[in-house]
Each structure stands twice: as C-alpha cells, then as structure tokens.
Specification:
The chain has about 270 residues and is of the alpha+beta class. It is built from eight helices and ten strands. Helix content is about 35%, strand content about 25%. It starts with about 25 loop residues before the first strand and ends with a strand.
Length: about 270
C-alpha cells in the first residue's frame, strides 16, 4: 500500500474499478505533520495558503480539534484542486505549485454544510465553480476528492480509521441485512474474526458517509436508508430507501456508484451520483 504521505495520490492507483471512468483527483494530508509544523513554526505558518474568508472562519473556531480539522481539510481540498487543474486544464504546473496559488482557491461551506470550491478567475468576486469537492478527516488524516460538475451530479469521500466501534453503532447505522452480512464476514475471518469485523464495519460506515456526501445531505437522513446490499473486492451495491431515495430523485439521479479500499489502517470510500 502507498502511504498517505504522498499528497499527490492519484485516484486511479486504488480506485480504478467502478469509478475508473470518473475524471477525479484526490489528495491526502497527514494531520500529525501539520500539527508538528504548527508547534514548531507557530499558528500562522499556514496563513499563506488561506484566503481571507478561510482565515477569518478559522479564527472563529475555538476548539483546537475543529481548527486543525478545518485547516487540514482545506489543505487537502486545495491540493486535490491543484492536481486536478494540472491534469485537466492545461495549467502551468510551476504556477499551480506556488503557495500563492492556494489563495486563488477558496473552499466554502454552503447552507447545507456541503463544501463548494471557487477559483479566482477575474470574472467575479467568487470566481468560477466548475468542480464538485468533498472533504473528510479522521484521526491523523484528511482527504479530499474533486471532480468536474459536467461529469456527474455529486461526489463524496469518507475516510475512517479501522478500530473498535461503539456497540450502539450496530443498531443505529445498520439494517438487519447488513448485520447479517457483517456477521458472515466475521465468521469467514476464522481466528481473525474481530479484526475482520472492525474492518468491514469501517467499510460499511465509510460507504454510507460517502453516499450521503455525494447527495449533499450530511447526516440529515437515516443511515439505514442507505443499505449496502453486497460488497466485492472494491465496489459495493447500494440500495436507497425513504429519505435517501427522495433526495436521489430530487437530484434527478440515474445511477449511484460506490467503492472502497483499505490503505494502511484506514478505509477510504468514494461515491458518485450520475
């Protein structure tokens, strides 16, 4: 497995199966490295990467974890946008690689909490917004996925650390069908049943989160309304019900694709709505 330290991680290296036709770019940020730099060089060591709005929003956050998550999420997002521009827009890599270019990329939260990316282009105060962007963070890692709006109707990424979960999650998040599949996975794990179950729970959870993000609903729908019917090596078949199906139809969706992969001690899932 490749390390998250490679911030120019190419989605096709792992997610090259059901979503191989989706023109997207992905980036990861090592949160621990950011924390070390902040401690060594001071709280303003990343200011040059932030726009005025992002900087002011960061200053309003009083809880340190939220500040770190926001900062690392923006860094991951800007790097994913930067990589996407280099690959698809004929932008000079040397110009895009300059830290000052990061100030031309602004990632804001919409009313629903869904992030939106704007690139300064001289045409308006906010600039263009031709991309969908999704951001996720967990213990030690932030991730972002970027895609062209013309290629789909929404994207989502979620990263989860594989770990022991609160037992309450079992009944809150999973349907009877999903519980049965998870139990079967544990049985097949033989002597590693606990480790296999932890990994699969992280997979199911991250798929559900990625699907919700692709529809721009956050956690405003019942997790059980996104039911994982079956999983393969990478891809997953997902059934939408009730509130999730209502949102899917509102967005005039035709197809929903989702997949996941394990990287180091994390499960990464992406979803795309067409």
């Amino acid at each position: 497995m490749r390390s998250f330290r490679n911030i120019y991680y190419d989605i096709k290296q792992h997610h090259n199966h059901t979503l191989k036709f989706l023109n997207s770019s992905i980036a990861f940020i090592d949160i621990y490295n950011v924390q070390k730099r902040l401690k060594k060089k001071g709280g303003d060591s990343y200011d040059k990467f932030l726009t005025e709005w992002e900087y002011l929003f960061l200053q309003k956050l009083k809880i340190n974890k939220r500040r770190i998550d926001f900062l690392c999420g923006r860094l991951a997002g800007k790097r994913a946008v930067m990589r996407h521009l280099i690959r698809n827009s004929g932008v000079n890599p040397e110009k895009v690689a300059e830290s000052s270019f990061f100030k031309d990329i602004e990632i804001r939260r919409t009313v629903t909490g869904r992030p939106a990316v704007f690139i300064k282009d001289g045409k308006g105060r906010n600039g263009s917004s031709d991309f969908y962007i999704s951001i996720s963070h967990t213990e030690g890692v932030a991730a972002s996925l970027v895609s062209n709006k013309q290629d789909c109707k929404g994207i989502g990424i979620d990263i989860e650390k594989i770990a022991n979960r609160d037992p309450s999650l079992w009944n809150v998040a999973f349907t009877d069908h999903e519980k049965s599949m998870l139990e079967q996975c544990a049985v097949k794990g033989n002597g590693n049943a606990k480790e296999v179950l932890d990994e699969e729970i992280a997979r199911y959870w991250s798929i559900k989160e990625a699907v919700m993000k692709s529809m721009g609903v956050g956690v405003n729908i019942d997790l059980k309304d996104i039911e994982i019917v079956e999983t393969h090596d990478y891809s997953a078949s997902v059934r939408l019900k009730n509130g999730a199906m209502d949102r899917f139809q509102l967005l005039e969706g035709n197809t929903l694709k989702a997949e996941s992969t394990r990287i180091e001690k994390f499960m990464v899932s992406i979803a795309c709505l067409y």
